[in-house]
Amino acid sequence: MKVALLAHDRFPIRAPFAGGHESFTWHLTRELRRQGIEVVLFAGPGSDPALGAEELGFTPPPISERARADVSMPPGAQVEETVAYLGAMRALAARPDVDAVHNNSLHYLPIALADTLPQPFVTTLHSPPTPWMEPVLDLNPRSHTVAVSAAVAEMWSHVTEARIIRNGVDVDAWSFGPGGDHLVWMGRIVPEKA
Known about the structure:
The protein is an alpha/beta fold. Helix content is 28%, strand content 15%.
């Protein structure tokens, strides 16, 4: 089996991790491979070379001064990010060897174009709804969703019925220290992490 993982391109997928999202994608890629699943990872520039990521960092041709003068358009970085995901989705459409696509990108375009792919498509919801992702999830019934917590699933429930698959912890990588058999976890204290 071969799975394509779409990461976000805001930060590289490598240790030390910029945050939980990068850690999630890195660990998921490694664990799927450990279980014998081939993984094609689409990620931002500077990701861990051991992951063999296909770089999302596509720079479109320069935008003309006339086009830049349109104040209603988003910033250039947003245009580049959208074009990068368009390139990834086109690449996936031309990959009959990929059996499934797992979207972790936090970008609306992969969800909007999910029905153009021959493969099954699932998006992991890591955070509350965004104005870009909410409408495309609502309009694309072919895009399946999972959420990392009951709180995140509830936040998206008006748009999609997400199954809950909690983030895992590699218990072999985290052992008890000299303080005893108690664990301490630290992270952002926000409602969606409940």
